[in-house]
Each structure stands twice: as C-alpha cells, then as structure tokens.
C-alpha cells in the first residue's frame, strides 16, 4: 500500500517517483533498441535420476536441432537457384509456384528440396518446410538459434519465434524484438505459449503499422470454413473472427450452455456438447428454442496511453489486440463517443484512400514529396523526366521519325549465316532502304524513300507500295530472292515487339514512380503521426504525460468512459489499475469516484492540488490493496483485486485463465492464514486441485505475490504476477 505522507513530503515523493519513472523509461527504451543477446543458459538445473536424464536428452535434442538447421542452410547454399532454368524459359517453374515460394527459398534451387527428401526419407512438403525453417533460423533469427544450441530454449519455442518475429520485414526491428524476447525469457521458466503471448505484444507495440496491415488483410479474409474431422461422420466448422467477436461468441455459447438444464431421461452432456447444441439451435432453429438471453463478460485491459490515442497494445481476455480495436470496442459498448469520430476498427484508412496517386509531372509534386529529403525530390524529378522521355520516344516511333542516319555495315561473314534474327532483319531492311544494294539503281532507292517521309502513316496505298518495295530491296542477299510479303511481315513483327517492349518499360517506370510516391506518402504520414497527439501520447513516459499530450476531446472521452457505470454494453464500472512505474506490478485497483475521494482533503471545494491545498493530508488513506476479510470468502473488492493481479493461473508455465468464480486459494489454510491479498493466489481448476492433492509439492507465497513452487525432486521455480 502507498504509505501516508504529509503534503510537504508528497511533492518530494512525487518528484522522486517521476524521476525514477523517467529513468526507467529511458532504460527500457535503451534496452528495447538493443540487439544484444543475454548469456544463454538452461533455466532450470538438472535434476537427479530419470528426470535429469529426460532434461539432458531434451537439451541434446535442442542442440542437435540447431546443428541440423545450420547444416541444412549450408547445404542450401551449395544448391543455388542460378543453376535452374530462369523464369520464362521452357521447363522452368511456373510463375504461380515461383510467386508462392517463401522469400528465403528464392536463392535456392528447386531441386534441393527433392535431394533433401531423398536423403531424409521425408515428403517433398516436409523437406520444403525444413529448408524454409532452417534458412529462416540461420539468416533471420540467429539469436534464437544460439539460444537453442545452448539449451536455453527447446524445439517448442521455435514456433512462436518463427510465426511472429521472423516475418518482420525491417531487419533492425526484427533484431530488436528477438533480443528483447531472449532477454525476457533468460533464466526463467517460459513455455511456448507464454513466449508467443510476449512475442505478439512486442510485435504489436514495435511494428504497429505492419501489424495493423496484417490485421486488415486478415479481416478481409475472414469467413466460415467446413472441413472433415478425423472420425467418419463428423465435420468441423471454423470461423475466423476478430478477437472481441470470437471471445464474445464463445462466452455467449458458454453462458447458454450453463443455463441449459440436463435432461433427466437423457444422457449427461458435457459443457462443450451443450455449447454445440446451443449453436445449432440459435442458427438453424431461431425462434424455436427456449434459451434465455445471456450477457457476456469480456475483460479489457488498456493503458491510459492506448486509450488516449497511442499505439500501446491492449488485452481482451488475455489476448493481445491493437489499441485502436479496443478504442472502437469501448466506444461501441460504453455508448460514449464524446467528440471523437468513429474510426475503422483496424485503425487503417480505406484501401481506396491508401492507393498511390497516379503519375505526376515534376512541376506538380505530391504533398509528401514536397516535405521529403532533397535527394528524394531529385529522384522524383528524375523519374518525371524519364517518363517525359518515354512519351517523346513513343511519339517519334509511331511517327516513323527514328531512322538511323549512319548504320554500321553488316560484316560479310554474318550475311546468310544461319537463322536470321528478327532484329537483324529490321536492321537489314533499314540498310536496304538507305544504302545502294547490289544491282539496284540509286534513283529507285531515292524514289522509294522520299515518299515514305511525306506520306501519312495511315495511307493504305503508301503502305502497300512500301510493302511491295521491301522484297525488291531485299533481293541479292547471297543471290537468293525473298518471297513476296515476308519482309513486310517481319517488319510488322519487329515493330509490334518494339512497341510492346516500350510499353513494358513505361509500365515499369510508372510502377517505380508509384512505389516511390507511396513510400513518400507513408513517410510523411508517419512523421505527421509522430508529431501529432497519437505520437506524443505513445512517447510519453507515464500516464500523466500521456494525458497531457492527448487532445481535449480524447481526455473528455476517457473521462466519460471512466465515469460510466453498469448498463448499456458495460457489465461493471471501469476500473483504474495503479501500477508501479518500474516493475509494472499492480498497486491498487480503484475507480473514478474513489480516486476523487482519495485526492480530496474532505473539505468543501478543496482538491489535492499543491497550488490550492495547504491542509494536512496525513490522515487521508492512500491507495493500495483492499484490506483483509474476516471470513473465509474474500470481499468483492479483494476478490476483484486478486483476480486483476494474477489474471492467469499462477502455476509455473500455466496460461489458463483464473475462473470467474472460485479458485482463489489460501496459501496458508484458513483460519491459520488470513483472507488477504498477501495470502491469496489464483489458479485454474486443475492446478488448484494439484496444490492440495499432489504429494511432495511445496508452495510459498510472498507478500508481493511472488509464488515459489518446489517439486518433489527438489527443483524450485518462482513466478511473479504478470506485469501491466
């Protein structure tokens, strides 16, 4: 509990606490920007007997997994893709398959997969997965591979790292996130589920824009799918929904199942079976069932910075979600929008608005380009100049103005030797019209060339005459005449190929211009966001700075949310979690009315502001955990505080949610131990039973909530309440 203090010491205490918070924030940022790995070591000492042999074998498996990954990557480097047929060549890999290959496999020959499959007696798909996984670990997650080799991680830890960290496109951000996760997992019991949850939070916080784009794509691909189950006669229906929708749907079905009585004459149904039956009744037989209406309770945890417009991710029933999704959910459920306009739940503008603008000339730069670096503006100007050049070249080609005034003579040893390339034919036709071919009067050449420059390009008669002249001009190559119309067809083919190449080059130029314009727009948008309220809120060192950086409308919306009570979409009054700025530990769980009472000296028209209050506040109670309860069951505030502090089962490695009813355990049995926050811990049902029934286990709970568990073999593991 925060100790009571006089007003004079309150200012000093706050100044010192703020200094520590700022220093801690700087240290966290410095650590967040660091890519240094910790010292890797197994988190638990080796036990004795068979369990120790299991641990040793598991660490050896992890070490050999890293050895295999490095060997597979080395093998892949010895099979470069340059030995394969290039795209477009006959027999090459199809464009669709090439586009579907992971990026790490692009430099590797497609036949390396078959060779690996034969060597390991696995399928081609398994070989491709092994290649992809090994190359990703070696080239994108080197720290994870080193931790695996040292026994600090095991095989199960690879999947959350490969799924959440490896896809980060920015090399620096990916290295920072990997290092942060490795530092967090060092020296502690960390299950793959816990590492995955931490990875989702770090990726959402550091790579927010990319995470929102992935969320937008996932929302666009949401749907319901049907697949066969392993048992004949059974099928599974899966639905891809957002986190709030999925959790609300699941909890609603659970509430319906809990309210459904068992048929005394029928078989006993599990809760899952009841949920499946309720789903069928609600969807297939609407209005024909007697299911009572239910309310769904979702626990939302969000920081002040996240609610005020920042990027700090939030939680919905323990699942990490972007801050904007929670803001949109609360605006809907609380029924209090304030002056904030409704925004898209993903926090991303409409895709139509995010498309790059059409090509622009250098004299009409985009707004983003005008604020870019000089070198970038120069690049935009060069691209516009290149586009102008292509326009001019296209006009001259279509107007027949591109005539080589001084063509190089064809070497004698190349005339009539082998097949004739179409481009060579075009050059030779041009040469035949401008030089004097053997056996032809120069005046005839002049008469065939002079009208071509003056005649309109769409004159059928002139085109027919030029076509008739081409075979005559081509006669005399090795003394063999060319068939009538052959030169004209070749000329048309060359012209069409040239126009196609020209259009492709122009399209490529436009694509490059679009990419640069989009990059400039994204850079300008990020810069504007950083300098705006959202960026200022995200960079705040504490909640007070976040509130000061927020706009008045955001503060008004937050105040309205905190002042809301049960009703509408809210089941309970919103609570304020007061946490330690250094450790993130929960200090108090309060609400707006209690916070106002605590900050008041109880005298009329007086607040606890140092500029206006000079009264002695020594007798005023501070904020902290609720006091002990006399009986066995905790009071409502105490029950709420312990569940908010622990949130998940406190047994090492377990991530099940603490049930909403019961399962708060007295570490020291009542009445020998009091019913207080220092003697209560939350468990799931299974681990709660294990605490009381499993022989040889010891549990010790400190006053700050640290739980130490000792196994029957003597291994000791400590867990802390999850920080906020």
UniProtKB/TrEMBL annotation:
Residues 335-373, 431-466, 617-636, 703-724 are annotated as: Disordered. It comes from the Bacteria. Signal peptide: none annotated. Residues 431-446 have a biased composition (Basic and acidic residues). Residues 82-333 form the DUF222 domain. CDD domains: HNHc. Residues 364-373, 447-466, 704-724 have a biased composition (Low complexity). This is DUF222 domain-containing protein. It comes from Blastococcus jejuensis.
């Amino acid at each position: 509990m925060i100790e009571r203090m006089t007003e004079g010491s309150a200012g000093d205490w706050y100044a010192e606490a703020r200094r520590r918070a700022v220093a801690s924030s700087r240290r966290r940022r410095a650590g967040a920007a660091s890519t240094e790995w910790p010292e890797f070591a197994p988190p638990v000492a080796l036990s004795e007997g068979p369990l120790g042999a299991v641990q040793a074998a598991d660490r050896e498996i992890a070490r050999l997994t890293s050895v295999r990954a490095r060997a597979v990557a080395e093998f892949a480097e010895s099979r470069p893709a340059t030995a394969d047929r290039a795209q477009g060549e006959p027999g090459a890999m199809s464009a669709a398959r090439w586009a579907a290959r992971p990026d790490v496999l692009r430099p590797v020959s497609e036949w390396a997969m078959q060779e690996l499959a034969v060597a390991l007696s696995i399928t081609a798909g398994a070989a491709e997965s092994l290649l992809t996984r090994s190359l990703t670990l070696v080239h994108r997650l080197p720290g994870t591979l080193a931790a695996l080799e040292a026994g600090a991680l095991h095989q199960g830890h690879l999947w959350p790292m490969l799924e959440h960290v490896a896809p980060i496109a920015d090399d620096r951000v990916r290295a920072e996130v990997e290092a942060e996760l490795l530092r967090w997992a060092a020296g502690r019991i960390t299950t793959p589920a816990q590492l995955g949850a931490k990875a989702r939070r770090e990726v959402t916080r550091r790579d927010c824009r990319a995470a929102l784009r992935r969320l937008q794509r996932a929302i666009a691909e949401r749907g319901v799918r049907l697949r066969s189950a392993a048992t004949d006669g059974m099928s599974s229906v899966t639905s891809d929904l957002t986190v709030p929708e999925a959790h609300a749907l699941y909890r609603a079905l659970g509430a319906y199942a809990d309210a459904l009585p068992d048929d005394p004459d029928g078989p006993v149904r599990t809760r899952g079976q009841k949920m499946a039956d309720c789903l069928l009744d609600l969807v297939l037989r609407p209005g024909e069932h007697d299911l009572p209406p239910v309310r769904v309770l979702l626990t939302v945890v969000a920081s002040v910075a996240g609610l005020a417009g920042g990027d700090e991710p939030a939680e919905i029933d323990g699942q990490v979600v972007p801050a904007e999704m929670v803001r949109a959910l609360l605006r809907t459920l609380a029924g209090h929008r304030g002056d904030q306009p409704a925004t898209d739940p993903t926090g991303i503008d409409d895709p139509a608005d995010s498309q790059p603008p059409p090509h622009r000339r250098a004299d009409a730069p985009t707004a983003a380009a005008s604020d870019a670096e000089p070198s970038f503006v120069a690049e935009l100007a060069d691209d516009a100049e290149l586009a102008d050049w292509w326009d001019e070249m296209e006009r001259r080609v279509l107007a027949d103005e591109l005539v080589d005034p001084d063509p190089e003579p064809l070497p004698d040893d190349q005339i009539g030797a082998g097949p004739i390339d179409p481009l060579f034919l075009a050059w030779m036709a041009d040469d035949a019209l401008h030089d004097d071919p053997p056996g032809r009067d120069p005046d005839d050449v002049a008469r065939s060339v002079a009208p071509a420059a003056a005649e309109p390009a769409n004159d059928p008669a002139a085109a027919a005459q030029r076509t008739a002249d081409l075979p005559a001009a081509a006669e005399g190559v090795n003394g063999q005449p060319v068939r009538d119309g052959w030169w004209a067809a070749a000329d048309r083919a060359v012209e069409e190929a040239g126009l196609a190449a020209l259009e492709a080059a122009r399209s490529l130029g436009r694509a490059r211009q679009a990419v640069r314009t989009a990059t400039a727009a994204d850079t300008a948008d990020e810069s504007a966001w950083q300098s705006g309220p959202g960026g200022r809120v995200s960079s705040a060192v504490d909640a007070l700075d976040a509130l000061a950086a927020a706009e008045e409308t955001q503060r008004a919306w937050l105040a309205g949310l905190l002042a809301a009570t049960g009703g509408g979409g809210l089941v309970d009054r919103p609570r304020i979690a007061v946490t330690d700025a250094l450790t993130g530990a929960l200090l108090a769980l309060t609400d707006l009315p209690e916070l106002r009472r605590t900050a008041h000296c109880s005298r009329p028209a007086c607040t606890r502001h140092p500029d206006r209050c000079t009264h002695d506040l020594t007798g005023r109670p501070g904020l902290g955990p609720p006091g002990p309860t006399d009986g066995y069951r905790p009071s409502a505030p105490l029950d709420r505080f312990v569940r908010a502090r622990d949130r998940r089962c406190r047994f090492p490695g377990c991530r099940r949610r603490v049930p909403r009813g019961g399962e708060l355990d007295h570490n020291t049995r009542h009445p020998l131990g009091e019913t207080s926050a220092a003697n209560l811990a939350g468990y799931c049902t299974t681990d709660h039973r294990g605490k009381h029934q499993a022989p040889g286990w010891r549990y010790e709970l400190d006053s700050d909530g640290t739980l130490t568990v000792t196994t029957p073999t003597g291994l000791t593991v400590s867990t802390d309440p999850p920080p906020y």
